[in-house]
Structures are given as C-alpha cells and as structure tokens.
Specification:
Layout lengths: L1 H4 L23 H25 L7 H24 L3 H33 L8 H20 L10 H20 L15 H37 L3
Helix pairs in contact: 2-3, 2-5, 3-4, 3-5, 4-5, 4-6, 4-7, 5-7, 6-7
Length: 233
C-alpha cells in the first residue's frame, strides 16, 4: 500500500506521454499540442476568475481547485517542453509534484462539479460562461485528461485530495474566526453551527473520497484496455 501512496515512479517518461502512443520514450507533437491547448484554457479561465472575483477570489474552494488544475497543466507542459529540448533533469525534478497535483486536481474537479450543480447552483438563474468554465468545464478537461494520460492513479493516492480538503476546512475555520459577522464562505460551512458543520465536512470528505475512487478505477480501466487491446509488445 505504501508503494502505491509513493510519488516515485521507476519510469518518469510516462508522465510526458499518452497512454495511446506506441513509443512512450518521447512525447509526440500531437501530445504537446494537446497539452498546450489544455494549459491555455486553464490559464485564461484562471486569470479571468481572479479579475472577476477580485479580492475575495482566494476564499472559494472552487478557485483553490481550479488553481491546482492550472498548475498541474503548466507543469506537464514544462516537462514535455524540457524533454523536447533534452533537459532530462527538469522531468526528474517536476514529475512527483505534477503527479500529486494531477491526482488532487482530478478528484477536486469531479467533486466541485458535483457539489456545485447539486447543492450550490441557483437553477432560477442562467449560468454564466465563467461559472460553467470553473464549475463544469474543469471536470470535462480533467476527465478527458484521465482518458489520455499514461501515468497511474492508485486508490491509496486518495490521501492527497483528502489532505487538501482538510486544509481548506481549517482555512474556512480561520476565516470565520477572523470575520465572525460575515465569515461564512458557503452556507454548508457555517461555523456558527459547529456540530452540524463538522458532520457536513465529514460527509463532504467521504464524497471527495468517492470521486477519487472513481478516478482511480477509471485510470486502472484505461490501462487494462490498453494492455488487452493495444499493447503489441
């Protein structure tokens, strides 16, 4: 189990290649183009969200999750670009961080989309493009990524998104203590009712774990399909 929690892999080149390319020793031009497009979508949306929300941008869990997705998209682009330039040390240094952020970002994206559209979104109002991009398109991009990448995602890796969720819960408590009159970021995280909110937090951690489980099983299914139908070795 500890081996599956670890972020050390015997073959770092799988982090810069697609599951579906025949030669995984070097990234293809198609894969670099794909990673460039994904990175630009994340960066442009991330900047737009900051400009729209202004000084309160930092307090929302959605923006924390989207930031993770954006950083991991930048990291993998840098790793692929470095490999193309034969800068091997960049890949060795960055892939563990990318792996962790990709795991966290994927689970968070699914979680954020589910919670937003099931609990938080007001269906009496038309959803704006930006709201869709940060609450819906995030999951779409990470889902597509999950189908394309070559690196694994293990069930024990769930410790990373759960830890991230706990950090945000602690942040929401600190924020409430600093701003007791208007420090409730989300109605479901109302720390003026601590027992109820603790119960909600435990439930949300369970939901986050569920989405990580789904992502990990999809990752394994992708590898199994490739091994059975596309592996010519």
């Amino acid at each position: 189990m500890m081996n599956q929690i670890s972020l050390i892999h015997q073959d770092p080149t799988i982090f810069i290649s697609s599951q579906w390319q025949s030669n995984k020793n070097r990234p293809t031009i198609k894969y670099l183009l794909y990673r460039t497009i994904i990175m630009l979508i994340f960066i442009i949306t991330w900047i737009k969200a900051i400009l729209t929300d202004g000084p309160i941008w930092f307090k929302y869990f959605t923006n924390w999750g989207y930031t993770i997705c954006t950083i991991q998209a930048i990291l993998v682009f840098l790793m692929i670009s470095a490999k193309k330039c034969s800068c091997e040390n960049v890949l060795e240094k960055l892939y563990p961080l990318y792996w962790m952020l990709n795991i966290v970002g994927t689970s968070l994206a699914f979680f954020i989309t589910a919670i937003y559209f099931s609990v938080l979104h007001d269906y009496q109002q038309t959803i704006s493009l930006l709201n869709y991009l940060v609450h819906g398109n995030n999951s779409l991009l990470m889902f597509i990524d999950l189908l394309i990448v070559a690196h694994p995602m293990h069930i024990p890796h769930g410790v990373y998104p759960v830890t991230f969720g706990l950090v945000y819960i602690i942040f929401s408590i600190i924020y409430f203590l600093i701003y007791p009159t208007n420090g409730t970021i989300y109605q479901i995280l109302d720390w003026s009712k601590p027992l109820v909110t603790i119960g909600i937090c435990l439930s949300l951690i369970g939901v986050l774990n569920f989405f990580h489980l789904i992502a990990a099983l999809m990752s394994q299914l992708r590898q199994d399909i490739h091994k059975k139908y596309f592996n010519n070795n």
